[in-house]
Specification:
Chain lengths: 468, 203
């Protein structure tokens, strides 16, 4: 048998039907659903008189629209449209009989944090969700695709996804990371290297010592942003770190089933000599704490650098850079560390897990945020929030002056009341610095949680290593 | 969804790369019911000035009758929101021509009868040049994968299965349900070989 990549192995294990032209029906093990991209899919089922094919494999949770402030059960906290979407999910989850974590449930949170936390996401599975950051689940060695609403309806109705196989891409991070450098810096550095379309048409497997050394939280951060590199899915081969994380989770297999699962999971790695269509290698020790300066996630520079000039680029990027600098209100040659920040947002499916909050606490413990700074920490789930409170992190945050919020997507995409105002500048641990992403004319600098914490303290973009 | 094979209309150029789905429709409009139509939200913040008034020089504002958009590389990258496609379709756009597309966007487009026509860099440059000053009549043929504009012909790339789907306007779910037996057989087999992946039945 010819050697296979990890992607090949998971793909082969899920092809339920293959047409002559190579189009496959991929069987889906877990379908995660949130309130924004699902209402029309459920409505489509209803109109066609269809049921959900496998409700036991379908998990719904509201996250995009939900307010993250106390008293959010009060409908007045939401816009009319947001309230309708959350209520529609409530109704659809009950009517179609899928697993559901309503806003009132402590397990509620961002769908990509809840799935792994509850043990729904397991190695070797196929996972889909009507959300591009479904790539997050690839950290478990699960093939996880973001899909559109038509595809959500298709999966609800058939438990399969129509797919043609993608190409294989390897991203290797060799060696060790330097102090102050995190998973977020790895994933941003990779996008800086490959560009936002570098992974288009590929499934990326992340490997190498620096990836192996990451916790599951860190691996989720890396895979989360595979989509910002253009790849529909990112993968990391499961290992002891993975098994340790999964074991004992509410929906993880137990007893003999656990042993059977483990036996297969241990075969989930890329065989020696397997073919990759594209390979990118970075040295872990070369990666610095990074920050984005522009309006594309590929606009990445080490924090020690200066704002680039459009003339530093070639082709269409010259005009794009000019437009980005204008939008961001930055001047070429300005030191990145001189950029003043109005708001700090810590959270999202990229960096809303317990380890991220611990990293923030380490930086801000015993310090105060800069006068006038708006700084919020939005845990990724009710359970992350509870754990942070138990560990005393929440007290550290509150004493430092942070707002300590309830779980949700929040200011990552500004569908709830958490938004930037025009011209407001934010250091954010989320995943997208697109124009208007965090609010109309808002300005976003993507950073790691530690770097966001440092900016909250000093009031400007800061090299966190100086505070360590 | 009605299928289509050929389209004649007006093409307009939007010479910007990396138009992501957050640009195509900002998230704050995504909770509006589709029945109200998403056309007015298409590229909302690019088309308007700070006061919310349409910028007359913006290509889609200057030429509201356009049905084909020629845009820069990596069109539709970012969020999986199908609302980005709804906004284009509801604004009367039938095809987007670009050197490359976000993967999820392209699949969503085909599911809504919108053609994502991928062209080579040379063809793209020629199209951009032809459209630099004014929109032009354009003819698109999905079957032959050809674009005709200003007397010149350009080829485009489109997966065969997507072409078939666009031409026939097929409903994927109906097609897949034709393979119900295969899906059921696969499910039963996987239930045995990977019982660990089976959640407990719903309580």
């Amino acid at each position: 048998m010819s050697p296979k990549t990890l992607y090949d192995k998971i793909w082969d294990a899920h092809v339920a039907h293959e047409s002559e032209d190579g189009t496959c029906l991929l069987y889906i093990d877990r379908h995660l659903v949130h309130e924004v991209t699902s209402p029309q899919a459920f409505e489509g089922l209803r109109m066609a008189g269809r049921k959900v094919h496998s409700p036991e494999k379908t998990i719904a949770v509201p996250d995009h629209n939900v307010p993250t402030t106390a008293g959010r059960e009060d409908p007045a906290q939401m816009t009319e449209e947001s309230r309708i979407q959350v209520e529609a999910l409530d109704k659809n989850a009950k009517e179609f009989g899928v697993h559901y974590y309503p806003v009132s449930d402590i397990r509620q949170g961002i769908v990509h944090i809840v799935g792994p936390e509850q043990g729904w996401t397991l190695p070797g599975m196929t996972v889909v969700c009507g959300d591009s950051h479904t790539a997050t689940h690839g950290a478990f060695g699960a093939l996880a695709h973001g899909i559109g609403t038509s595809e959500v309806e298709h999966v609800l109705a058939t438990q399969t996804l129509i797919q043609k196989k993608s190409k294989n891409m390897k991203v290797e991070i060799t060696g060790k990371l330097k102090p102050g450098v995190t998973a977020k810096d790895i994933t941003l550095a990779v996008i800086g290297e490959t560009g936002t379309a570098g992974g288009t048409g590929y499934v990326i497997e992340y490997c190498g010592e620096a990836i192996r050394d990451l916790s599951m939280e860190g691996r989720m951060t890396v895979c989360n942003m595979a989509i910002e590199g253009g790849a529909r899915a990112g993968l990391i081969a499961p290992d002891e770190t993975t098994f340790e994380y999964v074991k004992g989770r509410p929906h993880a297999p137990k007893g003999a089933q656990w042993e059977a699962a483990l036996n297969w999971w241990k075969t989930l790695y890329t065989d020696e000599g397997a073919h990759f269509d594209k390979v990118v290698t970075l040295k872990g020790e070369d990666i610095q704490p990074v920050v984005t300066w522009g309006t594309s996630p590929e606009d990445v520079l080490p924090i020690t650098a200066t704002v680039p000039s459009p003339e530093d680029f070639t082709g269409g990027k010259v005009e794009a850079a000019r437009r980005a600098l204008d939008y961001m209100g930055l001047t070429p040659g300005q030191k990145l560390t001189d950029i003043q920040i109005d708001t700090v947002f810590i959270g999202s499916c990229t960096n809303g897990r317990i380890e991220d909050l611990r990293a923030v606490a380490e930086v801000v413990k015993g310090k105060k945020i800069k006068d006038g700074m708006r700084a919020m920490i939005v845990p990724g789930s009710g359970l992350v929030r509870a754990q942070a409170e138990e560990e005393g992190l929440a007290d550290i945050f509150k004493e430092a002056g942070f707002e300590w919020r309830l779980a949700g997507c929040s200011m990552c995409l500004a569908m709830n009341p958490d938004q930037l105002s025009e011209g407001e500048r934010c250091a954010a641990t989320s995943n997208r610095n697109f124009e208007g992403r965090q609010g109309y004319k808002g300005r976003t600098h993507l950073v790691s949680p530690a770097m966001a914490a440092a900016a909250a303290i000093t009031g400007h973009l800061t090299d966190v290593r100086e505070l360590m | 969804m009605a299928g289509w094979r050929r389209h004649r209309g007006r093409a307009v150029s939007l010479p910007v790369a990396n138009i992501d789905t957050d640009q195509l429709i900002p998230a704050r409009f995504m909770s509006v019911p589709r029945a109200e139509g998403y056309g007015t939200y298409l590229l909302h913040d690019m088309r308007r000035d700070g006061a919310g008034a349409l910028r007359p020089e913006f290509p889609l504002n200057a030429h509201p009758g356009a049905s084909v958009l020629v845009a820069g590389r990596n069109f539709g990258s970012g969020s999986s929101r199908e609302a980005a496609v709804y906004a284009l379709v509801d604004a009367g756009i039938r095809a987007v021509i670009a050197p490359s597309f976000g993967d999820i966007f392209a699949a969503n487009a085909v599911n809504n009868g919108l053609l994502p026509a991928k062209v080579e860099d040379a063809g793209f440059a020629a199209l951009e040049a032809a459209l630099a000053h004014a929109p032009q009549e354009i003819a698109i043929d999905i079957e032959t994968r050809s674009i005709t504009l200003d007397g010149a012909q350009f080829g485009f790339v489109l997966d065969d299965s997507w072409a078939t789907k666009l031409i026939n306007g097929w409903d994927d779910i109906d097609l897949t349900l034709n393979h119900s037996a295969a899906i059921t057989a696969f499910k039963q087999k996987r239930g045995q070989t990977a019982a660990w992946a089976w959640p407990k039945e719903m309580e």
